[in-house]
Amino acid sequence: MAQNKTDLLAVLAVVKKYNLKSTEELLKKEAGLTDIPENVAGEAEVNSVLAAYKSEGDPDIYENSYMELRRFVEESLDIYKHELALILYPVLVHMYIELVYNSHEVQAKKLITKFGPEQEYYYQDELAKLAMVTKRDEMSGNDITDTFKSNAFTIRISRDTLSLLKRHLHEKKASVILNIVNEHMYFDLYEGVARNKAQCDATSGAMTGEAKRQDNKIKVYYGLLKEPDVQTLVAAPPEEDDDMDPDAPDKPKKKKPKKDPLFSKKSKSDPNAPPLDRIPLPKLKDVDKMEKIKALRESTKRVNLGPDLLPSICMYTLLNANHTVTCADFSEDSSLLSVGFVDSSIKVWSMTPMKLREMKSADQLKEIDRDAEDVLIRMLDDRKAESCRTLLGHSGPVYRTSFAPDRTMLLSCSEDSTVRLWSLHTWTCVVVYKGHQYPVWDVRFSPHGHYFVSCSHDRTARLWSTDSHQPLRIFAGHLSDVDVCIFHPNSNYVATGSSDRTVRLWDVCVGNHHRLLTGHKAPIYSLAFSMCGRYLASGSADKRVLIWDLAHGHLIAALTGHTASIHSLCFSRDGTILGTGGLDCALKLWDFTKLVDDISGENVNVSHNPDVRDGEPYLLRTFPTKQSPFLTLHFTRRNLLLGVGMYDLGM
User: Fold this and answer.
1) Of the candidates 206, 272, 274, which has an alpha carbon nearest to the alpha carbon of residue 510?
2) Which residues form the domain of 636?
3) Nearest one of 507, 596, 612, 514 to 556, comparing CA atoms
4) Residues 6+ apart with CB under 8 A from 137
5) Does residue 13 sit in the same domain as residue 114?
6) Residue 497 domain flag
7) One domain, residues 401 and 478
8) Using CA atoms, how far apart are residues 478 and 481, in angstroms rounded to an integer?
9) What is the domain count for the chain?
10) Which of 260, 267, 365, 449 has the highest CB neighbour count under 10 A?
11) Helix, strand, coil shares of the chain as percentages rounded to 5?
């Protein structure tokens, strides 16, 4: 309080000096300053208060202030040093922006040239882009300056570290830094011991700092939806098909189950699963029911993988495709393969002896008996069957394709900013979805069909349903391109990875993000959910795969070993093994069961990220290809691992 009164008296002295009578009276009245002596404040005190305003106008003070702050960080005790060091980068960026804004280009350039190179390696790209902004006019519309001006930089910090920092800044009267700290930084305070270097490094790297604890507080229903009871499909008469409706309550079973190994396992309700009616899901048609039974029969023949029994791997290499192929995708049952090309075409191959048939003409369809059991087969023309089909319609490179779970449709997205839906009966485009303003990088169907998600250079991801031209949700919050998106196995959540170096988990019901995951040091290009739905793997240009626990939003492991970007991730069907494929022409298999077992033994401290496990003990095997970087990985229902790559002559 004494300090505040001194400040006020100093201001009053200035007002008196310039003989501003009415202002003086007003200030006295508002501040409650009565019985004030004639000489209200000494000249030294006046100068100290005004120094704050003067320093902002003096461009040369910025460099000294930064050096003083850096010295303070370096000389601090080791216990506080690593958390304090987190403020150096945002302070430097805001100092540069302030100098440029006030037209002090020479000092700004000197500041960033001198201190830029000593910042962390993952900030260098942004600093290089920032250094190109040298005039106030160039700021508007610049990604970096806009991001820093409109978003507070978040730092998780212990109460002791923060009080140490504030005490230093007040003692030194470092007004330039104090203003930046107060206006542009958000300190996420916690009680307890300050974090060490490894803990700070684990979650740093995103454009605007770390995630606030508040960002990961909301409960996430990561459990799987109860599978419809397949036995009733087989045993029950057709009129009881309602049992398959995912929204219908479970009905009592009328017959005792037969001793068929296929139906011996009952699907249990997962305590962490969302309610069945949380989002409307499509009702299962007869074809879907038969497909479920087929999938169950396949899964009984599945190989149970583990450290002693690794999967067989079948690698498909695209020849003469260097720099022309952009993406590849398998259907869920592994019977179809789609490949997108730079020339805007899409090719679909049948992976089985059954060829790709086309629907008969309208005249021929009239003659078909609609009540026949095999009406769907009769509608297709065997004479027009081919092993490969080409789809044309996009006007730019195709960046991703995705098969509908029932294999009747295919989605594709392109540089032309559209998403297209193709019929795999007529082999034509049936809908063009226009909503994104810029290239669309990824598109994925929901595991339950009907819904799909797309993401774009416009920094948004969008949720669509196949029967609507307009998006149902727009997921906005990323600060740069959204490069990859994927549905959670229960279809209630969407995960996105971005060039802002964060992963976010969005709730499709409300459209908000429920998890913000920071720790990657480069753009994120691949995502995969574990079979249980609790864990998320993300692969990045930082050559690492990070494993996240969605229950608490914690980073639990960093799998290192790849020497280039990781563009494909896939969990085995039994959830025991994670396959990762990179541009380094290497496929790595990791023991995911062992990782989860090791973690489950630990006590979870909800306020702190646990120590991040190193991936080395979990690496089972590395398989190099000759010169084929991986486009996609896919485990079949029987746990055969399929890979697609293109032979790259230039490597």
Assistant:
1) 274
2) 395-644
3) 612
4) none
5) no
6) yes
7) yes
8) 7
9) 3
10) 449
11) 30, 30, 40
Helices (H), 379-464: none
DSSP string for residues in 254-314: SSPPPS-GGGSSPPPPPTTSPPTTSS--PPPPHHHHHHHHHHHHHHHT----BTTBPPPEE
Pairing outcome for strands 613-614 and 554-560: parallel
Distance CA 392, CA 416 (A): 13
Cα separation, 212 vs 157, whole angstroms = 11
Record the pTM: 0.83
Instruction: Give me the amino acid identity at 353.
Output: P
Q: Are residues 116 and 3 in the same domain?
A: no
- Local mean pLDDT, 10-residue blocks, the chain (651 residues): 61 73 78 63 48 54 90 91 92 92 89 92 91 87 85 91 91 86 90 88 89 87 80 46 42 47 61 85 81 84 88 91 89 92 93 81 71 68 79 94 92 94 91 92 93 94 92 92 94 94 94 92 95 94 94 92 94 94 93 90 63 88 91 93 85 54
The domain that holds 61 is classified in CATH as 1.25.40.500
Question: Quick one: tokens of 14?
Answer: 């200035």
Amino acid at 499: S
Is 120 within a domain? yes
Residue 567 shares a structural domain with residue 461:
yes
Rounded Cα distance, 464 and 430, in Å: 15
Please indicate, yes or no, if residue 87 is contained in any of the structural domains. yes
* One domain, residues 12 and 156: no
